[in-house]
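Handout, page 2. Input:
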Amino acid sequence: MNGLFYFASSFNQGLCAWGQKATPQTKVYDMFVSSACPTTSSPDFTNDPPGPFCLDCRMSNIKIVKDGGTKNCKPKPVSIGKSESDSSL
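Output:
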């Protein structure tokens, strides 16, 4: 997978699930160089979870969830609404 998305200037999709399926022997050098990914460094399998895979899979707003037998990065839900202190409004 070395250079798989190299110069794919419109590619910007989190592939955190790949880190759960690939092995440390998988060649992932320069996979996202010159892509539209916010994180273009080569994935590191010593990270927990492995990554980055276009996105930083360790970010606090990303969690790995099971979805139909596969693992995908999905943002944690954010509650937008009144807090208990706003109940008088």
